[in-house]
Amino acid sequence: MNTCTRVCLIRHGETDWNREKRVQGQINIDLNARGEMQAQALALALRDYRFAAAYSSDLARAWRTARIAVAELDIAVSPAPTLRERHFGILQGLTAAEASVANPSAHRRHMERNPDYDYETGESLNSFADRVLAGLGVLATRHAGASVLAFTHGGVLDVMYRAATGRRIDAPRDFSLGNAALNWLEYRLGKWHVIAWADSRHLQAALDELPG
Question: At 18, is the pLDDT very low, low, confident or very high (cuts 50, 70, 90)?
Answer without folding.
Answer: very high
